[in-house]
DNA sequence: CATTGTTCTGCAACCTGGTTGCAATGCTGG
DNA sequence: CCAGCATTGCAACCAGGTTGCAGAACAATG
């Protein structure tokens, strides 16, 4: 996504589009998969990890990104939900144990288990672990 | 589970039943829910965390326990699978964000998403986060 | 344009969970 | 009993995540 568009996207979510924030948003938009703090740090190269952490916290508070816990830390992806309150952009994720990347499984809806009485569910995390097609060759 | 039974259980899995290992196995059997390394350390009180770590690693290698990543670290539970190879004891887990405990959702089968071509799945982790019934009162 | 208060940022320090190296101890088989 | 391997506790380490702080950037106001 172009710098301009990312800047607008931030403003639409009530986030002031500082240069660093635009860089983080661009990195997330450009990646086809969720990125961890350190992946973002390496990709961008010019921003301190504490700032990336605070930027992602801000993004999350404004419903711009999802946090995904894939057993290898936390990764973030742009939330494509039509309505960030209802968070209808849920899907499973696949963590490759070889290349240690996390992919979105968008081919299928996130299957919802039956929740017993009394539990209040705030978020879902469905992680599959194994070997991705790229690493599975040969 | 009694000391005697735990000891047998270890031997059935090809694990030498040292006193410490029996303590860890008992703690896991006695708890109705998966426990983290530090929960085990606190519950048992007499065993060093590095030893608990190595004990759990051994248990896992012998198919005695599952590791569950619930976004709050790793927790372990006795694997009740009939056949540890096929690992048919899969179920979702619920992490309470208030008391920070993890519960098993055994009321329902773990729903399986459709996996795209080429991915080799080794394990599944389905975590729901929210507030458990005990913390949800009042 | 200068001033002031808030926001953003980088750096360094910290914390916690997980992991490893090592030396001492305990156990097992000859 | 002895040699050799398994088990253990301790201390150190590591990485990801988090916080405190002080300076830089910014927006608003007179």
As a percent range, the share of helical residues of chain A equals: 25-40%
The major β-sheet of chain A equals: 3 strands, antiparallel
Structural class of chain A: alpha+beta
Quaternary structure annotation: homodimer
Q: Write down the overall mean pLDDT of chain A.
A: 90
Largest interface, with counts of residues having CB < 8 Å to the other chain, equals: A-B, 36 and 36 residues
C-alpha geometry of chain A: globular
Number of strands of chain A: 6
- The DSSP helix count of chain A reads 5
Contiguous runs where pLDDT drops below 50 for at least 5 residues of chain A: none
Reading side by side through the largest sheet of chain A, how are the strands ordered? Answer: 1-3-2
Rg of chain A, please?
Answer: 16 Å
Question: Short summary of the structure?
Answer:
Two copies of one chain form a homodimer. The first copy, chain A, has 138 residues and is an alpha+beta fold.
Structural notes for this entry:
Two copies of one chain form a homodimer. Chain A is built from five helices and six strands, in the order ααβααβββββα. Chain A is α+β, with helices and mostly antiparallel strands. In chain A, helix 1 packs across helix 2 and helix 3 crosses helix 4. The first copy, chain A, is globular and about 40 Å long. Chain A starts with a helix and ends with a helix. The model of chain A has no long low-confidence stretch (mean pLDDT 90). At the A-B interface, strand 6 of A face strand 6 of B. Strand 6 of chain A pairs antiparallel with strand 6 (120-131) of chain B, so a sheet runs across the interface. Chain A binds a DNA duplex (30 and 30 nucleotides) through residues 16, 18, 20-21, 36-38, 47-51, 53-55, 73-74.
